[in-house]
Each structure stands twice: as C-alpha cells, then as structure tokens.
C-alpha cells in the first residue's frame, strides 16, 4: 500500500468537526510515515509545514483520543478479518 493511501485510510475519517483539521492530520501523518522518529521540523521539511503542525497540536479542538479514534477503528476492522489476533 502506498504511503498516502495508508495515511488516508487510517486518518481521513478522524471525527473533527472542522474538515481542515482532518486534512492537516493526514498531512502530518504522511510527513512522519517514513521517519516516525523525526522531530517536527525534520518531518515537515519547511518552516510553513512546521508552524502548521505546531498550530494543529496547540488547537484546543485537537485531542489525542480524537486523533486515535479513526486509527483505532481501522485497526479493529483489520482484526475482524482474522480468527486469531496476537497483540503485543
């Protein structure tokens, strides 16, 4: 699966009331996909992208549980395809 496809599948349905937050989340996730250990400036590769990411995480409407909600749902959907799932 292509990076952008995976990111869209995992995070595109995040339940933010403002669709711009969903779009920003997918951009951020795509930036970190190849190098999850990167700092925000390293992953974003531009001043504008870095500032947008900091603004995203500073937004009062952005909560960790909301970010993880669509990712969790996608994980559950994948697990349903198997009789046995090993979790570590």
Automatic annotation (TrEMBL):
Gene3D superfamilies listed in its UniProt record: Tn5 transposase, domain 1
- SUPFAM superfamilies from the xrefs? Ribonuclease H-like (SSF53098)
Where is the organism placed in the taxonomic lineage, from the top?
Bacteria, Bacillati, Bacillota, Clostridia, Eubacteriales
Which domain of life does this protein belong to?
Bacteria
The organism of origin for this protein:
Clostridium kluyveri
Query: Which InterPro entries does the UniProt entry name for this protein?
Result: RNaseH-like_sf, TN5-like_N_sf, Transposase_Tn5-like_N
Q: What is this protein called?
A: Transposase Tn5-like N-terminal domain-containing protein
Domain Transposase Tn5-like N-terminal span(s) in chain numbering: 4-62
